Amino acid sequence: MKKIYIILILSLVAVVACEKEDFGLSDCLDNKIEEFKNSEYACDNGANVMEYQFKGEKVYVFDPGLCGADMTSEVIDEDCNFLGYLGGIIGNMNIDGTNFNEAVFIKVIWKR
Length: 112
Fold this sequence. Notes:
The chain is of the alpha+beta class.
């Protein structure tokens, strides 16, 4: 009987530990963030997802962090449409012809 309780408790812990995090965003964004944070591209140091207001809409920047030189940060909109990359070897700061310095930071969605 004691073994059954131990198995049940361990099963419950496993289920809770594997539960997907809900960021309170659309399903596509929640899934995209979950994929990003579990990918090799998201560094152990400094990886984050930030929300900005840019050209009248909310956009999300997926910054891989500090584990590599010249890495790019993907920018997507609320519907997970790709808008462009920031950074990289050329230091790009333009998204759809507009300098991203015009974006207004709203909040950190996730960080490592």
